[in-house]
Amino acid sequence: MTARLSNLPSTRIEKLETFLIERWCLLRIHCEDGTVGTGEAGVHGWPRPTAAMIDEMNSYLVGRDPSRIEHHAQALQRHSHFMGALVGGAISAIDIALWDIKAKRHGVPIYELMGGKTRDRVRCYMHAKGNTLDELVADAVAKKRQGFTAIRFSPFAPDYHLRRSFEEWVSEAERRVGAVHEALQGDADLCIELHRQMNPAESIALGQRLQKFHPYFYEDPMLPDSPAMMGDVQARSGLPVATGERFSSIFQFQELLANNGCAYVRPDVCLCMGLTGSKKVAAMAEAHHVKVIPHNPLSPISTAACVQLDACIPNFALQEYTGESDPPKRDMVVQPLVLKDGYLEVPDAPGLGIELNDTALARLRLREVVTEPPIGRDGSVQDW
Q: Where do the domains of the chain lie?
C-alpha cells in the first residue's frame, strides 16, 4: 500500500493531451478526479517528434497513480537503452505535469513539496539584440530601463559567418562588448552568449580579450560535446562559463562538474528530466560551489516551472526571461506571472501557479519554420 501525505482520495491518470503551438510542445495530463496538470517539452524546434514520443509513453502512464513521480521517471528512463533529447523532453513534460497535479491536489505551490521557498523573487536577465552596433546598444539600454540588472547579448554581428579573418571577428566582438559595457555604466551585469559559434581555441582567445569588461558569464563558448575541453576553455579564457542547456540527463552535468567545466549550470527543466532532474542537477552543482541559471527559451509554462525550481534551491543565480507581454505568450495563460523591476514574483497559487487559456489554445497553431544554416564565405556550414 502506498503511503499518502494526507487523507486525499486516490486517483489515476486518465489521459494525456498534447498541444503544438508556435514551436512548442505542451502537455496536459488529466486525472480521474478532474485534476489537470500542465507540462512542456523542451526539444526546441522539434515539437512533432516530441509529441510522438509522449504518445509512446501514454500506454505506460494511463491508469497509474500520478503521485509516484520519481517512480514514473525511473520507469520511463530505464525501460530502454536508447535515450537522448526526445526522450528527455517527453519525460520532462510528463514530470512537470505530474508535479503540477500533486501540488494542486495538496493545495500548495510545487516548491512547497520540493523543500520549501528560499526566496520571494527571482532575478531575471533579458536578451538584447540588434542588426547594427547602435541597435544593440539601444536595446541593451532599453532593457536596463525596464528594470533588468543583467543583460545578455551576442558579441557577434548577425553576419559573423561572413568574416574575412579571425582578427576581424574577435576585434568586432570586442568593440560590441565594450560599447554595451560603456552604455550600461555599471548598472547591469554583462552576460555574453557565444551560442557555440567558436571552437575552443577561438573562444579562449576571445575570452582573454573580454576579461577587462568583467562579464557575469560566458555562455556556451564551444559545442557541449567535451566536458574536459569546456574545463580547459574556462581555465584559459579566465571567464566564468555557463553551459548545459542542451543536456538531457543528470549524468552529462556530472561529467561537466567533475571537469570544472563551468561556473554556472544551465539545466532546461523541459529537457533534463523535468523538475525532478533539474533539482538533482542543482544539488550536484551546489556541492561544487556552482550556481544555477535555468535555460528558458520556451512558453510561459516553461517559465512557471523554472520559477518553481528557482524558488526552492539555495544556489540560484539568474533566470532567463524572454518576455511574455506580447502575443502569443501573453494570451496563453489566464493570469501571467508578475514581473516587477526585473524580478519575477514567486507565486503562491497551487501547482505551477498559472493556468492555460483554453480560448487562446483553440486559435493558436504550430508555426512552420525552415531553418537555414549560416553559410561562410567558402560555402561551408557555420555553427549557429
A: 112-352
